[in-house]
C-alpha cells in the first residue's frame, strides 16, 4: 500500500483526481469503479470541475460497488441515484453504459449474479475508488466476509445501518440487505484508491494498514492487493505508528 497523509483534504483530493485524469488520458475508455458515500464526494466534485475545464470523460466506463436491496432506482438514497447525480450526469457519461446492480429486482440473488457477470464482461475494473466503513467494511462486505467472496446479497450489520442512517429519515428506513461486490471481486481491480477522512475512521484505518490481514477487518484484504493508494487526512491517520 502506498499511503499519503496530509492536513489539507484538498491536496489529497487533487492527487486522487490526478490519478483518474491520467488513467483517462492514457485509456479514454477505461473502466472506473465508483464508491458511494461522503468520502469520495469531493473527489467527484473535483473531477466535475475538470470536466467543466475541458476534460473529456465521454468514453469512460463506470461500474459501481454496491446497492441497497429494495430501493427503487429513483429513491433519493439509492446508489444508482447517487452515481447519476455525482458522476454520470456531471461527467457527461451515458447512463446506459454504466454497470450498476438492480436494487429492486424481484430476485436479488439473480441481480447480484448478473451484476458480477457484467463487471467481468467489461473486462474488470481499471481503477476502483473505495471508502472504508467505521467497522472496516469495503463496499458492503461486513466483518466476517470471506476474502474470496464474489458479488452477492449481504446482510447489513446494525452498526452499518446506524452509520448510514444519517442519510435516511430514520434508522428503520435503512435497508437490511444490499447487493455488494465481493472482496475477491474488488481485489481483481487493477488499481485501487481508498479515501478516508476524519477521526471516526482512524481505528478502521489502523486495523486496515497495521493490523494483520483478517476477515474481521474486510479492508485489511487490500494488504494483498498489488496496487493500492490510500489517501488519509491527519485525523484518519492519527492512530497510525510512525513509518
Ligand atoms: C457505505 C458504502 C461504502 C462506503 C462506506 C463509507 O457503507 N457501502 O462503500 O465506503 O459507506 O462511507 P462514507 O464515505 O460516507 O463514510
Task: Characterize the structure shown.
With about 240 residues, this protein is an alpha/beta fold. It has one domain (about 1-235): Rossmann fold, CATH 3.40.50.1360. About 30% of the residues lie in helices and about 15% in strands. It is built from 7 helices and 9 strands. Strands 1-9-8-5-2-3 form a 6-stranded parallel sheet. Strands 4-7-6 form a 3-stranded antiparallel sheet. Helix 7 links the parallel strand 8 (about 190-195) and strand 9 (about 230-235). Helix 1 crosses helix 2 and helix 2 (about 40-50) packs parallel to helix 3 (about 80-90). The two termini are about 15 Å apart. About 45% of the residues are buried. 2-amino-2-deoxy-6-O-phosphono-alpha-D-glucopyranose (GLP) binds near residues 35, 132 and 160. The site of 2-amino-2-deoxy-6-O-phosphono-alpha-D-glucopyranose has 14 residues, from helix 5. It is an enzyme of class 3 (hydrolase). Pfam families: Glucosamine_iso.
Summarize the structure.
Keywords: Carbohydrate metabolism, Hydrolase. This protein has seven helices and nine strands.
Task: Describe the secondary structure blueprint for this structure.
Blueprint: E1 2-6, H1 9-26, E2 31-34, H2 41-52, E3 61-64, E4 66-68, H3 79-91, H4 108-121, E5 127-130, E6 152-155, H5 158-164, E7 177-180, H6 183-187, E8 192-196, H7 202-210, E9 228-233
Parallel strand pairs: 1-9, 2-3, 2-5, 5-8, 8-9
Antiparallel strand pairs: 4-7, 6-7
Helix pairs in contact: 1-2, 2-3
Residues 35-39, 65-66, 131-133, 139-140, 160, 164 line the site of 2-amino-2-deoxy-6-O-phosphono-alpha-D-glucopyranose.
